[in-house]
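Researcher: For the annotation table, I need structure tokens for carnitine O-palmitoyltransferase. Please keep the output clean. Sequence:
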Amino acid sequence: MAEAHQAVAFQFTVTPEGIDLRLSHEALKQVYLSGLRSWKKKFARVKNSFITGVYPASPSSWLFVVIAIMGTLYARVDPSMGMIEKIKEHLPASSYLSHQGQSIVSALLFSTGLWFALIMTMRFILKQLLSYHGWMYEQHGKMSATTKLWLALVKIFSGRNPMLYSYQAVLPRLPVPGVKETVQRYLDSVRPLMNDEEYKRMTGLAKDFEVNLAPRLQWYLKLKSWWAANYVSDWWEEYIYLRGRGPIMVNSNYYAMDFLYVTPTPVQAARAANTVHAILLYRRKVTREELKPLMIQDCLPMCSAQYEHMFNTTRIPGVDTDTIQHYADSKHIVVYHKGRFFRVWVYQGGRLLNPKELELQFQNILNDPSPPQPGEEKLAALTAGERTAWAKARKTYFRSGKNLQALDLVERAAFFVTLQDDEEGLRTEDPVNSLDAYGKSLLHGKCYDRWFDKSFTFIVFKNGKIGLNAEHSWADAPIVGHMWEFVLATDCFQLGYNEEGNCKGQVDSNLPVPQRLQWDISEECQEVIQSSLAVAQALADDVDFHTFPFKEFGKGLIKKCRTSPDAFIQIALQLAHYRDKGKFCLTYEASMTRLFREGRTETVRSCTVESSQFVKAMMNPSQTNEERLKLFRLAAEKHQMLYRHAMTGGGIDRHLFCLYVVSKYLGVDSPFLKEVLSEPWRLSTSQTPIQQVELFDLVNHPEYVSCGGGFGPVADDGYGVSYIIVGENLINFHISSKFSSHETDSHRFGKHIQGALRDILALFKLH
């Protein structure tokens, strides 16, 4: 076997004259290059840590301070006010230095101390500046003198050429809102969902909580906010994601789609190679911290902490709670095809494999006729079923021998790749069903052809279409979306394909071939796999999915209405839901809190008194369009205000969640918190933002539009809605619900959304 031969670094024979060693120069060369790459990465990490550690100053600024201090000494001016002389008196090695040497060393020590003091001062000032959020509440297009001055100061103290994690130390901590404000905002949010008697009862519970229990719980949260980097994120990760014992497939994981209208090549191995190479290029940028931190208005940094676990990361199942396992580096990926698992090395001679070499590797896998080993084909169903069952199976059947080694390779892989043996994507002859099937395939597939525990599974279909399924606990969708934009743009506009649709480049003849993972799956383990598969299959079969492009108008026309596109769509969803079910419901819209250190998400409760009044006006034929338009503007303004509160740490749901966690730690019950945390989100929504507009030229290449991504329904009788605003004239929607619910129908709701968008636009009489 070729890989076995290449794995031997040397051979030896015993002769009468002694031992004869015959070294393999190629193998030793690979050992040397691998070690060299490892040391280079260690050095780069140390260098980046130092550069980030002194930001917003630069290492070269130290030299400037030293030269300035030395210059003043030679001019017989003492800027230290006697401190250099004090340092000179206490130098431990003063007896070994000349008088001039002592002066130079003392000046160097003083200069370095002064430099660090200046850095800490700049950081403190910048952190205080970034804690100001008044700019967000100003009228769009108008900027006060205070905000202009603030922006100028931010730019002065922000430094130049930041790396990915440069701003982490200067981001402010997420503030703990006041209990009174949170309780009042909660009561406002549930008013349209309750009758007078229900609301009166809830008000009584809330006020009792606010006066009696809340001050005690709030004290602990305040203490945590002073001590921890973020008072929410670790509890949110643990209790919302890692402690859930149900399947993460559909319930937690989400997906991203390929271009809607374009497939750059129909050659499966070539598309897989280009996009995998692009993903690895992105990983290199993350590892080297070469990505620029995401900025608002080109000067306000957002937290980059979630990028750390994008690659080489796996969710490990536990009986009571899961954990996230991250490895510093990984030199391989694991590929699944027709029930077999393969390890593919992504480095050769200390360099990344080029796309042509990766294409050869993937083609070797596609051409491999070997059948799956017993139990291998549906093994990944363990990651799709109940978490406790998977944890017990992992401890029982994967703790030694082949299974331990193979599982370790999967979990240590940079990411997981699935080469599908079927075709998906938009078909012009059947656009509705083809897009629906495409979305369902990415959401759950066959329930055994994705490793749902990996940070993400990259999927390549037989016709060259691609997609991605991401695990949710380690990061939120915008982080994965940023990588996905880079991958799509790099694949099409930089790497490209030749006339036959294959990758460009040359192939190293010494490439190791893909290696089959070896499993020893017992019959008992196979029964557990089948049990997990049955649970997952029942969940997948129940998903009613619909995705569609809305092409009648988009952001361009909505902006002419002088309203926020997101508020416009959210209010349309409220109208659509009322027409669909005849009632209002608790609505979740994901916002972000990444203006704060280790910030993740906050909830915007989109169903408000104002939006419900607008919906009722739209349903009332006696109301005039002028009255409806006035109510719409009030609803849009309220939605924007709620979004600002969420982004600036004034949201209510994470605060109430953390108060509930503290109450559980203290062993006290709160009827108010228990009721709040048990309320179902029957309409869960999220906008997929386009973060790198410069990568796509939608004016000259309008066909290169992203289809966005989606997620499963949060409530058994509710809807999950994801949407992406693409360019000026397109909005893509992804709707999920469950067939088992008699109240929901994803296609019906999709029609109501389209009708609501048209009806709201008609109020503005733009035509």
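Researcher: And a one-line annotation?
Model: The mean pLDDT is 91.
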